Amino acid sequence: MPESSVAARQIRKAAVLGAGTMGSRIAAHIANTGVPVVLLDIVPPGTASDAPKQERNKLVLAAIDALKKSKPAAFYVPDNARFITIGNFEDDLRLIADCDWILEAVAENLDIKRSLLFKVQQHLRADAILTTNTSGLPIADIAASLPGDLKPHFFGTHFFNPPRYMRLLEIVPGAETDPADVATITRFCDQRLGKTVVRSHDTPNFIANRIGTFSMGNAIRLMQAQGLSIEEVDALTGSALGWPRTGTFRLGDMVGIDVFAHVAKNFEAQAARIKDERADVGLAPFIDKMIEKRWLGDKTGQGFYKKASGDSGKSGGKDSEGRDLRLVLDWQTLDYRPSVRPKFPALDMAKNVESTAARIPQLLHADASKSKAAAFYWPLLTELFTYSSNRVPEITDSIVEVDEAMKAGFNWELGPFEMFDAAGVRTTTEKMRAAGAPIAASVEKLLAIGESWYKDDPAVPSGRVFFDPVTGSYKPVPMVEGVTSLATIKKARGVVRKNPGASIIDLGQGVAAIELHSKMNALGDDIVSLITQTLKPSSQQVTDFDAFVITGESANFSVGANLMQLLLTIQDEEWDEVDLAVRNFQNMTQTIKFCPRPVVVAPYGMCLGGGTEISLHAAARQPHAELYMGLVEAGVGLIPGGGGCKEMVLRSIEAGSSIRPDARGEGVEIFEALKKNFETIAKATVSTSAAEARNLGFLRPSDNITINRDRLLTDARLRARAIADAGYATPIPRTDIPAPGESVLATLKLAVWTMREGQYISDHDTKVANWIAYALCGGNVTPGTLVSEQHLLDLEREAFLSLCGEKKTQERIAFTLKTGKPLRN
Question: Could you confirm whether the keyword Oxidoreductase appears in this record (predicted)?
């Protein structure tokens, strides 16, 4: 069959063989997309052939139960489990006959995999695609026992755990794999599963685990050589480098020390068939001893760290703020001791540098004779640079695949070649040469014609080129259709207008983006001003563009209003300033709603408080699937003051069947819908996915969800363009909203009183909840009284200002700013 016709195939049904932790979570994530999936596993040993189906499917049933309870959640919403059909290998292999993709995910044992694949062959459709989820077993060895007509449809698909959250998928073709089948799975996993797909060669541990295991092993080696502690290494290998804040060892506990050991030993077992100059970086002896003791990390309750118990010297194993104390392993004695926060002056200075790319040279090129941090960073990073440079083209065809694999698989902000560029390739290499360190041949090739692995080049579609060590020349960074970024567009088109908090960018085709880029995208005066001025009917941008997208490219869409700015104003008792700030925020959200051009908000990550209010007022929302959305103001002793309550009232009224005249025709009964929204706001409920945000009422049924974060901007632009092309009608402010009124308000207050009497909430929680009820019900008015949107906004502002004057609210705000956590007072 021609490649193009096969590549256009759709994956309409899948099967996962193996219901262990990885297999079951892969099945759950496929189910998240609405694609039916068959999940099979073995019959428990010793189970009779005539035993009830429930007993024969016991392992899979247990896996489904674990998925529903898992934290972090495997399903976007628990109901997605309905897309999974369960069974076992002995009775139900026939269920794979109508599956387009069958993914084997049993134990990392070559004989077990080969045995299962032999049984599977007789049930496969001729054009079905068969893949193996292995973290390092040679694909060629697994494929060796397959018949010739099946080998073109077989290859490796290495997911990272947990599959819902870890974006990397390494595809490892075999020698005879049909490129069309690879294209089909690549497209499905990119667009439907949200994966960053990289192509790996069939080498030990593939790409990410090869580089990542070296990096972790090298950190451990340097710790031992330099006499550092576990918590010191975690501090050095965390967010300062743009790596996960967990650092090396906390990450090891989360992943599982046995998993880390398995990957390391898998490489050791296969090292003989490759050339690797650092094959000596293996497991430290103390880790072997930990595995013997079953100190495997979080899943066994202890690993490199463990929680302190009541006999640790402090009452109940808690600190002064009630948090669990942690003990850390002394790797030299294998005893646990209280964890101590490390102090490195270099890290304290680095905190003042916001950009990771700017921090790296500061940390790397410091005087190692005067800084413990620099003494650690120099060998850690330069050896990583050399090791990575020597791996291309061994493990993959380009440096781009290596960088993408480390960013998506290990959550590094920059890949190793991007870090090398940030450090300065020539400067770093000359210092290495002077110290007698080995220099990779590919680095010498690079420095013969250039200064960096990557360069900006507006002449290529992606706007960027990379150095190819094989050809010794620069090539365009591949651009996947539908994937783009604001950074790329800004390099090509520049910025229309900007201030410290936000920018306007021309996305092309008559659509502009308003990019949020303040610290944590907290919503301060600068963002409020730019959005309002841009979207008001008289603005130049409304004349120049047909539609707008509000989004960003930081880790989170917005953490909400700038609480520090608010607290300082409250402490100065500048109440007119607080009132003006709330009015301005309300004016901004109303401007979004009543803009003559459609505004699409593309939220992602944390979208809290004011970020949610911005989203609620848009013509449409195009969220990323991983959306943690909520009106969380109650957590700091406030209520939504930017129109959030108003919009949730309108959503309650739109609930349809729950709206009906009461028996006397005096009003509208919307109690059930309003009660749900009241609880959502009063409890500061945050969604665990975009699907749940829809269930909570923050998203509408018509709002589309993007699963691949890299496609969010393109999808939002297309949505905005489509709404404009359909003939967008600007909404008109409502003046006919039937207020729930005093009867519903009394009922909600009774519920709040009951919660207080049961001591489920505090006195201040009670005060906040009553204000929320007041704003949602339209105040103390007769049920059914017609009120305007402005009336509801005025009530929100009244409640917000009143609560700002409360000492306990001010305490909550201060505590949250200090700890990032809510205070119950």
Answer: yes
Out of 3.40.830.10, 3.40.50.10490, 1.20.1250.20, 1.10.1040.50, the CATH code matching 208-474 is: 1.10.1040.50
Question: Rounded to two decimals, what is the model's pTM?
Answer: 0.92
**pLDDT value of position 312:** 40
Q: Which residues in the chain land under pLDDT 70?
A: 1-8, 279-282, 309-324, 656-669
Instruction: Measure the CA–CA gap between 392 and 408, rounded to whole angstroms.
Output: 18
| Residue 3 confidence (pLDDT) | 40
User: Which pLDDT belongs to residue 8?
Assistant: 65
Match 């001729």 to its residue by tokens.
Answer: 126
Give me the residues paired with residue 380 across strands.
none
Name 12's bridge partners. Answer: none
**Structural contact between residues 506 and 546, judged by C-beta atoms closer than 8 angstroms:** no
Residues 682-705 as b or e (16 or more Cβ within 10 Å = b): bbbbbbbbbbbbbebbbbeeebeb
Q: For residue 200, which phi and psi values (nearest 5 degrees)?
A: -115, 155
Positive or negative: CA dihedral 379, 381, 386, 388: positive
Contact (CB, 8 A) for 596 and 537: yes
Distance, in Å, from the CA atom of 460 to the CA atom of 462, rounded to the nearest integer, reads: 6
Q: Which residues of 364-393 are buried (b: 16+ CB within 10 A; e: fewer)?
A: bbbeeeebbbbbbbbbbbbbbbbbbbbbbe
Q: Buried b / exposed e across 441-475, counting CB within 10 Å, b at 16+?
A: ebbebbbeebebbbeebeeeebbbbbbbbeeeebe
| Residue closest to 718 by CA, chosen among 603, 547, 592 | 547
Q: Can you give the pLDDT at residue 658? A: 40
Please give the structure tokens belonging to residue 818.
């200090």
CA–CA dist 712, 456 (Å, integer): 23
Beta strands in 127-167 (DSSP E): 129-132, 154-159
For residues 251 and 303, the answer to whether their CB atoms sit within 8 Å is: no
CA distance 246 to 240: 11
A 10 A CB-CB count for 630 gives: 26
Q: Which CATH architecture has domain 3-199?
A: 3-Layer(aba) Sandwich (3.40)
Report the alpha-carbon distance of residue 579 to residue 566 in Å, rounded: 11
> And the tokens for 260?
């880390």
CB 645 within 8 A of CB 772: yes
In the prediction, which pLDDT does 314 show?
Answer: 42
Which residues lie across from 327 on neighbouring strands? 306, 338
Residue type, 29: H
In the block, residue with structure tokens 């408080």 = 609
Residue 798: which residues within 8 A CB-CB, separation 6 or more? Answer: none
In whole angstroms, give the CA distance from residue 658 to residue 668.
9
Which residue type is seen at 105?
A
* CA 610 from centre of chain: 20
712's enclosing H/E stretch is helix 712-725
635, 812 contact by CB (below 8 A): yes
Q: How far is CA 190 from CA 74, 161, 219, in A?
A: 18, 17, 33
Strands 511-516 vs 547-552: parallel, antiparallel or unpaired = parallel
Q: So what's the pLDDT on residue 461?
A: 87
**The amino acid at 543:** T
CB-based contacts of 703, cutoff 8 Å, min separation 6: 620, 621, 622, 623, 694
CATH fold label, 488-809: 2-enoyl-CoA Hydratase; Chain A, domain 1 (3.90.226)
Spell out the domain ranges in the chain. 3-199, 208-474, 488-809
Neighbours of 677 (CB within 10 A): 23
List all residues 6 or more positions away from 243 whose beta carbon is below 8 Å from its beta carbon: 237, 410, 411, 412, 413
Q: Residue 784, Cα to own-chain centre: how many angstroms?
A: 43
Residue 572 to residue 570: CA distance in whole angstroms: 5
Strand blocks (E) in 34-132: 37-41, 84-88, 101-104, 129-132
Q: What percent of the chain has pLDDT over 90?
A: 87
